[in-house]
Description:
Elements: H1 2-13, H2 25-46, H3 51-63, H4 74-107, H5 127-144, H6 162-170, H7 179-193, H8 197-220, H9 232-248, H10 251-262, H11 290-305, H12 309-318, H13 325-339, H14 348-362, H15 371-388, H16 390-401, H17 403-410, E1 419-421, H18 423-439, H19 445-452, H20 455-466, H21 473-486, H22 489-499, E2 513-517, E3 523-527, H23 534-558, H24 564-581, H25 583-590, H26 599-629, H27 632-635, H28 639-654, H29 668-685, H30 692-698, H31 702-711, H32 715-729, H33 743-749, H34 757-762, H35 764-774, H36 805-811, H37 817-832, H38 836-840, H39 842-852, H40 858-874, H41 876-889, H42 901-919, H43 923-926, H44 928-937, H45 943-957, H46 968-981, H47 985-1002, H48 1006-1009, H49 1014-1027, H50 1031-1052
Helix pairs in contact: 1-2, 1-4, 1-5, 2-4, 2-6, 3-4, 4-5, 4-7, 5-8, 7-8, 8-9, 8-10, 10-11, 10-12, 11-12, 12-13, 13-15, 14-16, 15-16, 15-18, 18-21, 20-21, 20-23, 22-24, 23-26, 24-26, 24-28, 28-29, 28-31, 29-32, 29-33, 31-32, 36-37, 37-40, 39-40, 40-41, 40-42, 41-42, 41-44, 42-45, ...
Amino acid sequence: xxxxxxxxxxxxxxxxxxxxxxxxxxxxxxxxxxxxxxxxxxxxxxxxxxxxxxxxxxxxxxxxxxxxxxxxxxxxxxxxxxxxxxxxxxxxxxxxxxxxxxxxxxxxxxxxxxxxxxxxxxxxxxxxxxxxxxxxxxxxxxxxxxxxxxxxxxxxxxxxxxxxxxxxxxxxxxxxxxxxxxxxxxxxxxxxxxxxxxxxxxxxxxxxxxxxxxxxxxxxxxxxxxxxxxxxxxxxxxxxxxxxxxxxxxxxxxxxxxxxxxxxxxxxxxxxxxxxxxxxxxxxxxxxxxxxxxxxxxxxxxxxxxxxxxxxxxxxxxxxxxxxxxxxxxxxxxxxxxxxxxxxxxxxxxxxxxxxxxxxxxxxxxxxxxxxxxxxxxxxxxxxxxxxxxxxxxxxxxxxxxxxxxxxxxxxxxxxxxxxxxxxxxxxxxxxxxxxxxxxxxxxxxxxxxxxxxxxxxxxxxxxxxxxxxxxxxxxxxxxxxxxxxxxxxxxxxxxxxxxxxxxxxxxxxxxxxxxxxxxxxxxxxxxxxxxxxxxxxxxxxxxxxxxxxxxxxxxxxxxxxxxxxxxxxxxxxxxxxxxxxxxxxxxxxxxxxxxxxxxxxxxxxxxxxxxxxxxxxxxxxxxxxxxxxxxxxxxxxxxxxxxxxxxxxxxxxxxxxxxxxxxxxxxxxxxxxxxxxxxxxxxxxxxxxxxxxxxxxxxxxxxxxxxxxxxxxxxxxxxxxxxxxxxxxxxxxxxxxxxxxxxxxxxxxxxxxxxxxxxxxxxxxxxxxxxxxxxxxxxxxxxxxxxxxxxxxxxxxxxxxxxxxxxxxxxxxxxxxxxxxxxxxxxxxxxxxxxxxxxxxxxxxxxxxxxxxxxxxxxxxxxxxxxxxxxxxxxxxxxxxxxxxxxxxxxxxxxxxxxxxxxxxxxxxxxxxxxxxxxxxxxxxxxxxxxxxxxxxxxxxxxxxxxxxxxxxxxxxxxxxxxxxxxxxxxxxxxxxxxxxxxxxxxxxxxxxxxxxxxxxxxxxxxxxxxxxxxxxxxxxxxxxxxxxxxxxxxxxxxxxxxxxxxxxxxxxxxxxxxxxxxxx
Length: 1066
């Protein structure tokens, strides 16, 4: 019967043939409507297949109190027939669906296979049926609803299409029933039809705005008491229907339709504008009446303040955008709407209490297409609220957003015995902070103050993520950098002092809690377990403070085009200068008579002194880490910062000049530092162009330079200070000739005050300090050795070849570190060139290298290691045998220090590794003894020797190629045993790394050389990946498995080579 109903609807709505040329469009439409209605009535009476439809129609007609059979308006008669057929279809489908649902339980007991499709409900319509029904609905809305809307209510038909303009002229408003009753009848029937879900989809997807406009007019349009088209109950029912309709339809669509109903010149026109209209798109919507504008405003405010109302408003305005500039302007407009409290709200506090959580929810949208726009709305709304409604923003927006970070500060064991902040909660909080502060990029005072309270927690979290793999590292770093870049200099410096430990930790993570890694790559805050070992706790504290300093320096290094690192550095130097000035007062305090003080006063004085000493040590530690980790162009970017640095240095040098025991008297380190600093000033003054601003900035150095030129005991510094003072004071008009002479070099040479050689021998520590400084220069600048034997300078004989070989042997025993190291480098070059004297004296050279191998200075023993490696390469037979014996049993020289035997053995292992690399094609011939010694070394009691033996074994075995075959079983047994039984992680790492080096070195030969042990090695590597707790060992094993995978892929799938073969047949 469903198809019969649609056949009847088709008779009513089908188009007729072409109209006569003499007939107007209005007349043709009028005739078509009458003809179709007459055809339908005829078919219902004559066609036997439509008898059931006719009976059901009569039942509907009898129940319809609105049906008017006496009307003279053809269009309304046509609309009535359409409404009757729609109600007939609705009643039929409702009855069929009810019977279908009642029959479902009985049929469910039948045997059904998984392949069988579920039975199709009777209310499912085909495409043709939907098309027919859509045509009927369009006739109903166009002829029975839109023409009776008041002016300004909804979009007029004339502006929708040319057909709408014809329909407007066709309607007879004066005929019965009245226009208000017609509108009420059409609206009620459409709402009855929409009670069936299948039909409601077709009604509301195309005609929701018209139905809403009709309900608004019927329920809310003001009328005079004497001219009311509807009764009070009918108006109230329309209001209730409107509320129900707005509640069950998708809210973004409702909001979009309400915005259209508001009308006005500020609204943009619809996509499908009128064909014959000549007005602009801004005029597509007429100006809505005042009562409708107020009503739409109230309804929009209710939609906004209901649950998920903010997201519905945002979706209604932004959905369908292309992401261009207009969409960004829309985002800003929506943000302004959200911040403006509507008049319908009882109070601003209640409004923002409802809206702010929904604004935060916009930050959590995961849809990639809309997340960026939602984030833009949320950030702009937050920034606007901070500017216009600061109290509400702090209470309902920033406070809840930062709650997890504040809980990290205020957490207690009683409230959170296990986990204080979950991983998901902390991750969401940091992502929100990043979006609002960093992406929003609105550096206002309120946002900076709110963020400053939790900066210590974020920094602690950043330090933790730097030690682990976490996706929170990048947002933490970006948040910290944003804060440091946008804060005032004083606030940033204060925060840096707190983060570096120079001030009391405030607003940091609670003492009883600590961060741990989460299961999803995040971090959570857990309760700390009590540690019974005080030494372990102290070590963790000290190492943690050092790590925090290193992380802080990495942050400062990431700051681009910022003077903050230099300002922080100069601020610390200024504090160091003030402490130097207060040193005399501390000396006077120590001379106070303790006998006249009470025990409490004595205790307070001692505690105050220890606290000051701790602060000084912390300051020196921060300065040392800054100098070590940051480049000079980060610390001193501008000339003014260099001048401030020099001012601090000169002021510190001037402290105590009038006292005999001042810091610059008899202190060579202070004198050298002061000389280098003044050389820096001289370099600045030697620039080709200096402006008057530069000279005025340097004028702050004049008082300190004057004091140094008059009171410093070193004549060189006095003269240089006087010259610099004269240049700055005259703005470069006076310039001495020897200004460019390096002052540090003058002070270091100081021929009149150079200490004697016997004093230098007794000052071993100073010699090693100078040697470590000397070792930083490249080798090309080390040829002019600072001093030779007997006080002679090697700069008199710049060519080492002109110096006798015996003198270089003597210089290799010189107590001066630079001289000794340079002599060892020259001897290495002589051995490498096969110098006849070096070949003849190779035993002496070997002894010298072995003796210097035990030296404490790195520059010396590294030179000795290089020399021994060259000797082993030149004379492998005897030298390697001696080195292997020393590696196995320790140093064999009579003068060797037995207490440092382990360190010497490790150095010999380094020599053997370099020698293995240099063997080249001779490795199979010379490497067999080394393999045996290294395998024995894997059983050494000391873990460092075992690790060194394995490292050397890997370097050697990857070069043995096919010679490794006989040793494969022994090597495999050793490595697999160490991997599974060794307790030290360092040794297990080395064993796994040996396998990786083997596979990398043998490459395509792996399947031939390691054919018998390849499976055992593979199982060992898989065991490490699955069972080993050390992450580094697991990483090495994974890399080795990747090497093995590449080898096997090349073995199984060899590369196809396209080549031609020419065969000569006999």
